[in-house]
Each structure stands twice: as C-alpha cells, then as structure tokens.
Design goal:
Blueprint (H helix, E strand, L loop, with lengths): L1 E3 L4 E3 L3 H5 L5 H20 L1 E2 L5 E2 L4 H17 L3 E13 L8 H9 L11 E10 L5 E10 L2 E9 L4 E3 L26 E4 L10 E2 L5 E5 L2 E8 L2 E8 L5 E11 L2 E14 L6 E11 L5 E6 L5 E7 L2 E6 L2 E8 L2 E9 L6 E5 L8 E5 L4 E7 L2 E7 L7 E8 L8 E6 L4 E7 L2 E4 L9 E5 L8 E5 L7 E6 L2
Antiparallel strand pairs: 1-2, 3-4, 5-6, 6-7, 7-8, 8-9, 10-33, 11-12, 12-13, 13-14, 15-16, 16-17, 17-18, 19-20, 20-21, 21-22, 23-24, 24-25, 25-26, 27-28, 28-29, 29-30, 31-32, 32-33
C-alpha cells in the first residue's frame, strides 16, 4: 500500500515477496495484475475505520497543495513542520453540535465549511509551529476540488479546534471565574497633571506610593491632592545600583525590597557591563534600611511579592523568602524553563487566587502558584527580544476583570485581555508611542492610569477615576 509522507510515496512490500522468484510466466502475470489492482485501489482510496483514506499524489499535485498551505501560513504568521506533513482522503466533517468549534475556527480564518459539509475532500495535516519553533498543535487544511476550503488547528490543554487567529490558547485550565468583556476604556476620568518617568514604575504599595528605577537609583512618587510628584530618591553606595524593587506586606506596614547589583565589571572583551546581583535590602515605611539578604551566586534578576513573601528570580529559578524573628530565610526553591526580568502578581479575575505574570523580555508568561509548585497556564511563543519595562494590570473599562499592560521595544503599550481561550492582545485604540500605566493612585478601589503620548518630550498625564 502507498501512503504519502511529504513528497515520498512509500510502497509496502513483504520480505518474502523480495526473496521468492516467480517460477512461471503465468504466476508473474497474476502478480503484476494483483499489484496494479492494489495500486489502483490505493489511488482511489483505502478507507479506514474513521472514513479517512490513504491517497497517492503526484509531485505536481503535492506542490499545488503545499503552495496554498504556505500562503495561508504566511497570511497568519505561522509555520508548520513539513517533515510531519501527511495527506489523506475523506469527507468534510458534518455541520453538527460536535463540530461547532471546528466550523467556527475555520470561519474565523475566512473559510466557511457550511456549504461543503460532508463533501469528498483531501485533508493535509502537519505540526503547527509558533514563531520560536514551539509546537502549537496539529493544523488541518481541507481541500475541495484541489482548492483550499477550510483550515483550523487542534491545540491547547483541551485538544480543541482553534482559529489561526487564536495564537496562544491556554496550556492548563486556570478555572477563572470571569473573563474580559472589552469594548474600550472608560472615558469617565479626570485628567490631572504631574510628573512620572517615561518608563513608568516597578512597584506600588497599599497607600499609593510607587517606586521607579532611574539610572540605578529608586525614585518614589505619590499623589498628594491633585498633584502626582516625586517625594523621595534613594541612592546607593559602593558601586551598587537597583535593578529591581517590590513592596512587601508586613502587617500594617509595607516594606520596600530593593535588589542591588554591582554593574562595574566588564565582560571578557571589556565592552559591556555585567549585572552581578549582590543583595536584597529592605526599607521600612520611613525608608530606613532594616535588614538584608546576602546573595552568594550573584544571579538575581527580579523580585516579586505576595502574601508577605518575597520571591527572588535567579537564572531559571524562583526562590521564596519568608520573614522570621532573626531575618529573612529561604523556604522554597522552584525551577522554571526561562529567565525572569520582570514579575507582576495580581488577581486578574477577582476570584481570590493570584496570577503570576512573568517576562524574560522575549515572552509573556502566566502562572498559578500552588503548594505543588508553579503551574504555567499560558504564554506567548516569540523567542526574540520584544518586551520592554515593567508589567502592569488594571481594570480600565470597569467590567471587574483586570487587563495586562506592557510595552514593546518602541515604548508602545501592548494590552492583553483575559478570554475563555487564553490571553489575547487588544491594541486597536492604542496609538504608536502611547504607554499606559494602571494604578489605584488615590486608594478608592478603582484603577486609574498614567498615560504617555508620543511626542518630542513624551509627556504624560494622570487620569483619575471619578467616584
């Protein structure tokens, strides 16, 4: 029997048929007719239990199919593993309840299957690849009369049908209680003036004070009345510079934890500075240093905090530190498959469970932190430097679900919204060079935001929610 495997029809023969010669011409004639009959049967279709059929295609036919497949992959910025490509004959899936998602996925990509339901077809299947080479699932191309008539892929934790527009489905069920109903940002805000660095802030405490890292120092900003302004600057001695900071809840007080690194060492060529994390220093409400965590390996890159615990990210590890009478001690160490340069922890859907948003500057990751460890729910799959600055979240349309904000390499905000199939970007109303930094500045329980616009000075304004 022949089955096509990307340009190579394979003829299956038994070992005995190769070793046993034909003794008479009559037997040879019968064998030839039998072989021709088998080939004809395979070319017209060998049906399996599911109705699919193995088929044999000429090189010209294969090329025509692949050309159409490549075109739709380019249109939606996907690729596929050509070594995994197979073709089969069969029928277009029926338009019934079982195939609702399949039909919707193909329709969303611009290929309606309704008029061809049940029709005889050729289907090409291959491993669908993300930009960074990760496998997204199995893509299926449906052809009728040699024309591409349907396309979808099977992926996600639920092995369901997805549209080519749905790039990053959930990898694990997050059991979210609510999802974003995005129709645009609220317009019910008061616009105020103030000052805040163009690249925003990295941490916020419960009283509305935010910390920004500028040239290795910590600048603290606070809203007083109707003016947002800088209230304090922390500088560090001995060649140490701040590379990350976070506020840690400590009873009624919020401690400021700062990750300090020595950036005076040069690489082997003497051309670039190396960040060598030295320690984490804690500051009280009066911004007086109280205690330290000395770091031995110097690999720290980012800090995070939740429920009074401090998280230190180093290489591909997250370390948990908890306060005891004599200081802070490491209580847990968990592995990741990527580095972390920024961490933001928030309850996106309001169900009481915190979401851990992480980035390595290339991709965005969403985790839950359980007793059993970190569970990756979702991620992008770019694998190239594309994200810049800190991570933020805020409910800027008032639907009760927080959106996620981060900037790309141009300083333009990217908004991700929580949907039933995964996080997806929604940037239709964001202008080039516009940055959005959500925060509840006045403590009224409603998210406000600092807005940066493109211009010579990239000036900003505070948009405060109206009560």
């Amino acid at each position: 029997m022949e089955r096509f495997q990307h340009g190579k029809p394979i003829l299956l023969m038994t070992e005995g048929s190769l070793n046993k010669p034909f003794e008479r011409n009559e037997n040879m004639k019968k064998a030839i007719w039998l072989l021709l009959g088998m080939c004809f049967f395979c070319m017209t279709g060998c049906a399996g239990d599911d109705g699919d059929q193995s088929i044999s295609l000429s090189a010209q036919e294969q090329e025509a199919y692949i050309k159409q497949m490549d075109a739709v992959m380019d249109e939606f910025y996907w690729s596929y593993d050509k070594d995994s490509l197979t073709f089969r004959g069969g029928e277009v899936p029926l338009d019934n309840e079982e195939n609702v998602r399949l039909y919707s996925a193909s329709q969303d990509a611009g290929y309606s299957l309704k008029a061809i339901a049940g029709s005889e077809s050729v289907t090409a299947e291959a491993e669908l690849l993300h930009y960074n080479g990760d496998i997204a699932g199995d893509v299926n191309f449906i052809f009728i009369n040699k024309q591409l008539s349907g396309v979808y892929y099977i992926g996600g934790y639920d092995d369901a049908a997805y549209s080519l527009r749905e790039r990053n489905p959930f990898l694990t069920n997050g059991d979210f209680s609510a999802y974003e109903s995005w129709t645009g940002m609220n317009t019910d805000y008061r616009q105020l003036n103030g000052s805040l660095p163009v690249d925003g802030f990295v941490a916020k405490n419960r009283s509305g004070t935010v910390a920004s890292i500028q040239d290795g120092r910590i600048e603290l900003y606070h809203l007083s009345g109707s003016v947002l302004s800088r209230m304090r600057t922390l500088r560090f001695q001995g060649g140490l510079e701040a590379i990350s900071a976070v506020f840690v809840e400590n009873g009624e007080e919020d401690l400021l934890a700062v990750l300090l690194a020595d950036k005076t060492e040069a690489d082997a060529e003497g051309e670039a500075e190396i960040q060598q994390a030295e320690k984490v220093v804690f500051y009280d409400a009066l911004l007086q240093p109280t205690t330290e965590i000395e770091l031995e390996d110097g690999g720290g890159t980012a800090l995070g905090s939740a429920s009074g615990k401090l998280f230190l990210f180093a290489d591909q590890v997250m370390e948990t530190y908890e306060a005891e009478e004599e200081g802070w001690y490491r209580t847990r160490r968990e592995s990741l498959r990527h580095r972390v340069t920024q961490c933001h922890i928030a309850d996106l859907d309001g169900n009481g469970e915190m979401e851990y948003l992480l980035t390595d500057g290339m991709d965005l990751y969403l985790y839950h932190h359980l007793e059993t460890g970190l569970i990756k729910l979702w991620s992008t799959h770019l694998g190239v430097e594309s994200l810049y600055g800190a991570l933020y979240s805020g409910d800027l349309n008032g639907d009760g679900v927080k959106e996620v904000y981060i900037c790309d390499a141009t300083g333009t905000a990217i908004r991700y919204i929580l949907t039933e199939k995964g996080l997806r970007s929604s940037n239709e109303d964001i202008q080039y060079g516009q940055a959005i930094y959500p925060c509840d500045w006045n403590g009224d329980g409603m998210d406000d935001y600092w807005n940066i616009t493109e211009g010579a000075d990239r000036g900003g304004n505070l948009f405060l929610s109206k009560q």
